Records
---
Amino acid sequence: MDKLALQTMQHLSDRELLSLNIMDDQAVSKTLFNRYYNKIFSFSNYLLKNSEIAKEISMDVMLKLFEKNNSISLEEGQNLKPYLFRATKNAVLNHLRSVKIFTSSIDDNPSIHGLCDDSLTDAAMDLKELEAKISYVVNKLPEQRKKIFILSREEELTYAEIAERLNISVHTVRNQMAASLQFLRKELQGVNSLYLLFLISF
């Protein structure tokens, strides 16, 4: 791999890197891998408490990023962090569901614990609790802020798409999201900072 090309890529934004052909350019894929893999692994390992599974999930998330780069759209100033954090969280949830521990039966049927690795059982319960805390705080937001936050976080709309749907300006969307994130960080000060970093930061 050309070291000069790799050094050049390191100075490009995520948006600029996505405009290139990730699958055919090792310098581009290497740059994105170096930029995000360790963060994704730390997050998935924190949630799962299982480094081997976390490695598999992290590699899979990065590979899917490389495969889907042409369908990912970033606005000026945005980066891939929110997209990758959501993808990682969803991959973790899918894994937990696949071993049948992230369901209501985890509460109703204690015998299920014996069928699964204890660390994964703990991870499912921790994640369920964290999701409940986030949902509780989001529901405390003023109605318009809550709507904007949900459209951004759950429906993954861009600020421009949210503005069009709600018939407001992009500037208003940006300000409302900033206010919502500030409120969530204040309300969730006791929650693990790594989880919050991946869940609500831009």
---
Amino acid sequence: MGGSSRATTAHGRPATRGAADAARNRQRLIDAAHRIVAAKGVAGLALDEVAREAGVGVGTAYRRFGDLSGLAYTLMEGHEIRFQEAFLAGPPPLGPGAPPDARIRAFLHALLDLQRDQWELRLLATTTTAQGFGSGPYKTYHLHLVNLMGELGGPHDAAYMASVLLALLQPVVLDHQQRALGLDPDRVRTGLDVVLDALVLHR
């Protein structure tokens, strides 16, 4: 009679406490992953190692991130949020206020720079699973390019062209160009501009 009406979990604990515990564990795992990267590089990341460093069970790590790809995407969140804010609402030419052709070029250049800034993490995120082309960031990039090409007009298939341009910037492609083909960053950027001009801007 007159007992508390506060929601509880299946284990009888208050739901809010369970959510707080989950949030703390997630942050402990993220902090542990950052420490491992700082000490050993991205190659040192493994979910069981991150769990040991964080002092939580390995099952908790898998529930929070699913796999190494999910962990890598989480570690990139800060950079990703700032990048998306820049191209969606920042100053031109990356953000609104510039002609669509200038914004498309600025976006591709900025994405290329972002891939390089987080090279190993982004390579890990897109090669440990099949998420690369279906990830949240990819869908946002694709929609952004499709919208800009719609503003640009022309006879091209915007959805297809956006996918072609983004394929050129996949980490595994850039890694092959750099390591196997020996292409330096300037050659990659110049080649990207040539493709953009020929296929989309018709210059």
---
Amino acid sequence: MKSNTSEEQIHFQRDNISLRLGHIASNFARLRTFCHNNYEKGVLGVIAQTKDFIEWTAAEIEPELAEELVNIQIQLALWERTWDNIWSDDKKRGELATTAETYSGRVLDMSSLLLEPTT
């Protein structure tokens, strides 16, 4: 039987949960930057990838954090669904960038990466 697991998923899931959450937070920072730079293709690609990253992570974390990630994933899907309206409106695009920045900070907090000692 053929596996439905992609190489990207296998590679991503090799990291521990903190690093995975760090990747998700980093993607939200990219979303913000791409919105400000009018890089539509980049935004759409990062949204799709981030939805996958959340799917591959949420089942392995505490239920409260998983719920928050899934709610964020729903927002990503809503952005995709209303994409033409968002991208054609500077104000809505700016709101998306601001929300992405907020999500980046929140997910980075979840990761506890900033609390881990450096070696």
